[in-house]
Amino acid sequence: MIEWEFQKAIYARLSGDATLAGLGVAVVDISGQPDPGDPAAAFPRVEIGYQDAREWDTKTETGLDLLLRIHTYSASGSMREPREIQSRIYELLHRDPAGLSLPAGLRLVLLVRESSFVDRDPDRVLHGVCEYRALIEAL
Fold this sequence. Notes:
There is one protein chain. This protein is about 25% helix and about 40% strand. The protein has helices at about 1-15, 20, 80-95; strands at about 25-30, 45-55, 60-75, 105-120, 125-139. A five-stranded mixed β-sheet has the order 1-2-3-5-4. Strand 4 (about 105-120) and strand 5 (about 125-139) form a beta hairpin.
């Protein structure tokens, strides 16, 4: 399951980063309504969101074209914190396929950020979204 292996690799890369940890960032998978004390309720946090997957096959090879959304949440009241978090995620992921650890049999051909924004949610939390495109080939 290419999508799940990719999501696990993204999670490992982000949750294992000392700079994000130093910013106090909790990295979580998609969260529903979190309980108090759950890391998914913490601020700031990064949430690995939904993926859109499209076939990227040729006659001889199998692959996927994935669009991954990574959400950032900040209660700081300033654009600085979510932008710093998004910048660090960019440094970790954009054009750095060697930084992700995929299992044998999968090769990350391309990983680029396509867009990012930060907006204020109705509850005044700053909510950012970064979209990353990945091309993954099954060997």
